[in-house]
Amino acid sequence: MKPRNLAILLSSGLVFTITACGSDSSDSGKGSDVTITVACQPAKTAPKQREAWNADVATFEKAHPGVKVKSTDQQPCYDPKTFAAKLAGGQMETVFMVPVTNYADVISKKQAKDITGDTGTVKNYGDIKQAVRDMVTKDGKVYGIPNVSYSVGLVYNRKLFKDAGLNPDAPPKTWEEVRAAAKKIAGLGNGYVGYGEYGGGNVGGWHFAQSIFSRGGEMVTDGKAAFNSPEGKAVLQNLHDMRWEDKSVGSKVLIGWDTLMQQMAAGKTGMMLGAPDVVTDVVQKFKGDVNNYGITGVPDGKASLSGGEAYMINPKASAAQTKAGLEWIDFQFDTPGKGRHDYARGKANGEAVGVPNNDYMGDSTTGKAIVKGRTDNANLPVANYQSYVDAAASIAPKLEPAKAQELYAVLDVAMSAVLTRENADIDKLLKDAETKANGILAQG
């Protein structure tokens, strides 16, 4: 799950721009030619993935005469610190990636193009789950093409479970069981963390949202903060007690999204909240042992945070640029066996293939074809993820709240406090956060 990422972004995620960001067809080349630039090219440090990307560009250009794709290796694809400023300043790419947290804001500010009449360019658009398509639709008009949808679960280290005398085939189903397992894993010795959590960088507040949803609580109700509740207090109290009574949560406050995954890959952390793409990053990006990691349903399972991303078109894009961008999205994201879904190539390139990630096509014909391609070419132990698949079918998805990033930043303070101060006043932390959150929400 990558907010951030997801936050929570896929390593093969794409963002598009025209040669001069935000310009019109005057920059599109001679005659009927059109040029788009594609950001998020894999880094030079991932040569096989970069080569695959370049091969996709060549294949696409050959199939679309007159379209020129120029790649840039802009990283990260989404940065919450600069995203809003780029939009407000008119510097956003012609075809740009938007996380689900920002859908409503971008659409309401008319910073995305109405592509209702152009969705047919994406041949499998109709196979995207209706609920996912609804997220980028307002007043009957479509403003984006979703390509990522996920729900949060509990990622865990099967080896550490075994070492601690726990059954890796029966992972925790409740927060009480998580706490008990974390204490046993921390008991393995210095440097071992039973359960890892964040305290800053918006990811602390993001994980607070995941935890409160799993307990049946809410972040926002009727336009006002709702997290100052028994469920919200339980999130902070449990984390505090694990940190100071059980000493099963590490003493270092983690901020960057990558930091906790690095610890998981190093074999020192037993559990963390995360979507299946966390497993992918742990084994592929951070070189963790593929056999050591599993994922199961989110603890307590009252609801699970659902996230994702979509591509939206700059309102200034010409018709030709819009068409070319949608054709690229169709090729790279939504066609089984092509682009991102070329799992045979991914396996040959040493990529992690097999996690049940990104269920945005559901059980449609396209969705089934994608799952089959992924399963047939799996180089990961798919049995380690079956409990997540089983649980996800019965756990209600929950969208991120309005003003999500701003609220997450507010709740970072509370998460950091219980991780750094044994005498932290949880009631006051929640009250202060509620006041600040309501101020943010009142701005509309």
User: What is the C-alpha radius of gyration, as a whole number of Å?
Assistant: 22 Å
Instruction: Tell me, rounded to a whole number, the average pLDDT.
Output: 88
Structural shape = globular
Strand content: 5-15%
Helix content: 25-40%
Query: For the report, how would you describe the main beta sheet?
Result: 4 strands, mixed
Q: Give start-end ranges of low-pLDDT stretches.
A: 1-31
| Structural classification | alpha+beta
**Beta strands, count:** 15
Termini Cα gap: 28 Å
Number of helix segments?
16
Question: Which tags fit this structure?
Answer:
single chain; 4-stranded mixed β-sheet; 16 helices; disordered N terminus; globular; 444 residues; alpha+beta
Topology diagram in text:
Blueprint: E1 15-17, E2 34-39, H1 47-63, E3 67-71, H2 83-88, E4 95-99, H3 103-108, H4 130-134, E5 137-138, E6 141-142, E7 145-151, E8 153-157, H5 158-163, H6 175-186, E9 193-195, H7 203-214, E10 220-221, E11 224-225, H8 230-246, H9 257-265, E12 269-274, H10 276-284, E13 293-297, E14 304-313, H11 319-333, H12 343-348, H13 365-376, H14 386-392, E15 397-399, H15 404-420, H16 426-442
Parallel strand pairs: 2-3, 9-12, 14-15
Antiparallel strand pairs: 1-2, 4-14, 5-6, 7-14, 8-12, 8-13, 10-11
Helix pairs in contact: 7-8, 7-15, 8-15, 9-10, 15-16
Task: Note down, in words, how this protein is organized.
The chain is α+β, with helices and mostly antiparallel strands and 444 residues long. Helices cover 39% and strands 15% of the residues. The chain has 16 helices and 15 strands. Strands 4, 7, 14 and 15 form a 4-stranded mixed sheet that branches. A 4-stranded mixed sheet has the order 9-12-8-13. Strands 1-2-3 form a 3-stranded mixed sheet. Strand 10 and strand 11 (224-225) form a beta hairpin.
